[in-house]
Amino acid sequence: MIQRLPSRAVAGLVACLCFMAASTIFAQNLGKTSSSEQTTARLAADMISKYHIGQKPVDDRISQLTFTRYLKDLDPAKLYFTKADIDEFSPYKDKLDDLLKAGNVEFSHLVFQRYLQRLTERVAIAHQLIDLPHDFTVDESMVTDGDLLAYAATPEELNERWRKRIKFELVSLLLDDKTIEEARKQVHKRYDTLLKAAKGTEPSEILEIYLSAVAHSFDPHSSYMSPQTVEDFQISMRLSLEGIGAALRSIDGYVTVSEVVPGGAAEKDGRLKANDKIVAVAQDGEDYVDVVEMKLNRVVRLIRGMGGTKVKLKVVNAANETSEVVLTRQKIELKAQEVKGEIIPLETRIPGAKGRIGVINIPSFYRDFGGAQAGQDNFKSTSRDVAKALQEFDKQGGVDAVVIDLRMNGGGALTEAIEVSGLFIDQGPVVQIKEPNGKIKSYDDEDPGVMYKGPLVVLCNRLSASASEIFAAAIKDYGRGIVVGDTTTHGKGTVQHVMPISNRMFSVLNNQDLGSVKLTINQFYRVNGDSTQNRGVPSDVVLPSLVDHMDLGESFLENALAFDQVPKAAHPIYDMTPANVLAALKEQSARRIAAEADFDKIRNDVTRFDARKNRKTISLNQETLKKERDEEKAVEEIRKEEEEHETKGTNGPIFKKTPYNDEVLKIASEYVTLLRQAKTAKR
């Protein structure tokens, strides 16, 4: 249908009236929003539209996407909001952009308060449903995909969803050998904890969810980061923090020690043990703060602090004895997340094989930017740690090939991806970057020489992303080594930059930290001109894996940017991936895999997983659900085996003996042999 457009003056008046209406509706509540929230929202919206690579305005389209995303983030399974709630919110679907520009974020609080109201109502009903008798022999099912559901139009419809949800939670616990009384008690406690946690949500957390919904409307990797989130991000990049040296988790409302970190203050003191409960925290010279039922992130904030300062803990041990533990905070190196290397003599893993394979596991591309800028000699850096591992291989007599394990490596610092690539290639371009103005810039390895010249295998999976893909692509495009693993990598071909929200125009707030926006400001491209966006880096030799069949990767994310290409960058080609060598490696690996029973099991689990992952419902019949869970357990064991190296302890095996890992070693060994044969044939 074609509509006659109103005159510019009339259109402007209509827009003005719409904005005034929205502003008037919120005016009575605007005073409840802090001035820092208003400033943060206004500046964040401006920075997102100005600096995001898409160079798109915060307009009605973004408003609609934000509206949908924020509601989905709070209620993904459509268990709380009703159709009437959504109808009430709907007038703001096209107005959030204008409100944001005015610094008005009351919509986020209005919706969150309604969420808390509905959550409180639903938890009360859940407690009633938990105690009702349920027939676990009835053949009925529950929809598990919220996208397939409409918001409930009546209380009866929503009650039925909750009846099935509670029934599923109870029958799941019965299958875990709980009695019905034990199951009811556990589910009651679960919902009490859920409600208490939600009621403890701080305004800064609501703002983070809301502004991240705005940023996610531009692309899935842009977000708003509160000051606390920025701090966590910086810790992950520098692999160190100042604290007591204990990993914590929340169990039934208690902050519980899950692990004492080696080398930390807690280990040196010796009194704090795994499974101890921390019930109160005090700063040196101050009164205790009760932390039972407090959200974990707040407790962590109380315990963290400047190195050299003291923190007091009231601790309840396994014998239910309460004691006071006073610890002096210190810098803690997060050793479990740093680069590790080991040499594997092939004869210890593969009967009849000979040779030595060096394996280097890179969990992330970390870099302590503050330490680097300060000129510290020992700042944490992936490239430095990889170089140390290669030097250690040489000290131990050298290796025949090196495997770089990037499975589960979600990326990190672009600088590190370039510098790690430079350890294996001579000078030349590593990655091309498209800037917001469309200009293509090449980022080169400028350091002449290499640390290792031999055969190189890069091991990836669907969760190898971003900086991992830059490294894998450079090795592949230079013909420097082979890529082995899942069909392709994650497909994240974008670069994010964390930008502090500037408040220079607002002198009153100059001393306040308003957080940061993490924005996609660039796209990166392989030196062959292809983007890795959506498509990733394909493997030269593909191995069967469950992760490869999961819906993981950029192509499955909402608002992902599209694949495209730029001109190739001139670069040398190493003679280490001849076509006949790659073909032979593929053929021999496929033959082995087809003949090995261990891979039959993986293939069978993949077949079951593929059949199940498209199922959008789950049975509430106890016997049927038991059969489904038995199948899932077998698949889960394979998945854990594939991902285990990601969470292994500091002293655990770097490259555990599994059929998959042993096949990688066989490929590396054959790669060495085939390259030697190819060189001999040329002479």
In short:
The protein is α+β, with helices and mostly antiparallel strands and 683 residues long.
What does this structure look like?
Residues 624-656 are annotated as: Disordered. Keywords: Hydrolase, Protease, Serine protease, Signal. It is an enzyme of class 3 (hydrolase). The chain has 683 residues and is of the alpha+beta class. It is built from 20 helices and 21 strands. The protein folds into three domains: 17-218, no CATH class; 240-333, PDZ domain (Pdz3 Domain), CATH 2.30.42; 337-682, 2-enoyl-CoA Hydratase, Chain A, domain 1. The N and C termini lie far apart (74 Å).
Mean of residue pLDDT values: 86
Strand segment tally: 21
Share of residues in strands:
15-25%
Radius of gyration: 28 Å
Please give the share of residues in helix.
Answer: 40-55%
- CATH topology annotation of the largest domain: 2-enoyl-CoA Hydratase, Chain A, domain 1
- CATH architecture call of the largest domain: Alpha-Beta Complex
What characterizes the major β-sheet?
6 strands, antiparallel
Question: Descriptors for this entry?
Answer:
683 residues, alpha+beta, Pdz3 Domain, 2-enoyl-CoA Hydratase, Chain A, domain 1, six-stranded antiparallel beta sheet, six-stranded mixed beta sheet, 20 helices, globular
Q: SSE layout and pairings?
A:
Layout lengths: L7 H23 L4 H17 L8 H15 L8 H7 L6 H6 L4 H26 L9 E3 L11 H20 L5 H20 L3 H14 L6 E3 L1 H12 L1 E4 L2 E6 L2 E7 L4 H5 L7 E7 L5 E2 L5 H8 L6 E7 L5 E7 L1 E4 L6 E6 L10 E6 L7 H5 L8 H14 L5 E5 L8 H9 L5 E7 L5 E6 L10 E5 L6 H11 L4 E4 L8 E7 L15 E10 L15 E2 L36 H17 L1 H17 L3 E3 L2 H26 L11 H24 L1
Parallel strand pairs: 12-13, 13-16, 16-17, 17-20
Antiparallel strand pairs: 1-21, 2-19, 3-10, 4-5, 5-6, 6-7, 6-8, 8-9, 11-12, 14-15, 14-19, 18-19
